[in-house]
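Example record used in the benchmark description.
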Amino acid sequence: MGNNPHVLVIGGGPGGSTVAALLARSGVRVTLLERDKFPRYHIGESLLASVLSTLRLSGAYDAVAAHGFQIKRGGYFQWQNDTWRLDWSQLVDAEAWSWQVDRAEFDEILLRNATEQGAEVIEQATVREIIFDGERPTSVEWTLLGDDTVRTTEFDFLVDASGRDGLLAKRHFGMRRQHPAFRNVAVWSYWEGAQLHPDSPEGAINVTSTEEGGWFWNIPLAGGRNSVGYVVSARKAAEKLRTGELQSYYLETLGDSKPLSEMLAGATQVAEVKAEQDYSYVSDRFCGPGYALVGDSAAFLDPLLSTGVHLATYGGLVAAAAIATTLRGEMPEEEALAFYQDTARRAYTRFLVLVSRMYEQYIGSDEYFAHAKDLTAEHAGDTPEASFTRIMAGLTDVNESEGQQQRTDTGALVSEVENLHSESANLEYMGHLDMSVVWDHWRDPLADIEIEGLRVATEPVLGLTRRARTEQEVAAVARPVLAPKDAETPAR
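Model output (structure tokens):
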């Protein structure tokens, strides 16, 4: 490895852009190859509160905050016979909030931020081949749109943030596993003039279950549009999908739901119907010699709890810290990547547990919220409903500590997950996981994150360390200012 190590990032979505920006800010030479030309369309508009702190660390926060996205302060769930009003300001923190975003605009802000932080970003660049030296990737061959010339770029470390394409996990290693329990299809479109349930917190995502085991989302976006979609077992929608009757199936399903019919009364559909299926999967490993998988390239669970951008940016933060530490020669690569593997898998698996119970074992909100509380060991005074809301806001993942904070029963939690899917999903990979789950701190999301003595540090540069954090580091990840209640795009 030379004096000026080079990191190549494949993919410019939230995970790839976050890694690239953070590494560039740390003084690492970074090249990012993105297949598309931004802005480009992407589904997944509802952000968790945890995203704000990562945006601040990456340098993208001010641009996102100034853009005018819809403020989001929680969720409103009508699930089976229960109603959950999950107001973050009441159940989590008076200043807990995030955004509902147009992903084309949001993702472009993050990609441009990577350039501003010093990364070289090349769009419309398609990676054709990854070249290995033994188990370690060393270069890629790629082409630009409209030019058949094959270019070769060498690097010291590779970040695969290629999303569902999964260049490493799916194409090269063949180590991506579908979740049989979540073989769902999502069908959605956009509306003008739609309403949220009148009891919703400001800008809240509305989630409504159906008798056939599916559920709707209704997400308010800036400019008076709403994203409205339906998720159901692909088996139940198979005939409609084969015949291509998406529009009629979509409208028929909406019409069969009293809550959705009321929300869409007088509204106008303003976009064609889109659909995706078989999007729930996980890779056997998230890293290896000279490479790391970040975001959807590593895993994607399910849209139910809006975890996609959260897991991508959080994973990008931890991966960048591990990579930077290794490239500076401060820690063996294997040890630093093990830290990333553990933290990223914990975050993913926590949501797997909650989503699994909603789909397979939901018997009422009292039982469900009580289970969410069992996934935590801090904030002992929280009600079970508050425990669920903290997890749903994404405010649980970055504070997995030892020492002062109590750990949950790892074996019991692993056993429960395996029982949930013993007949329907392959969860062999979970046998080795440390499933300790504790609360993070909204004001300071990196406080006390520690695995076997390691933690993420932000000063003097981003990396992993065994020392206590400084006051400057604490300030660097302090909570962003309270979003105004009179935001330009209030919930309708």
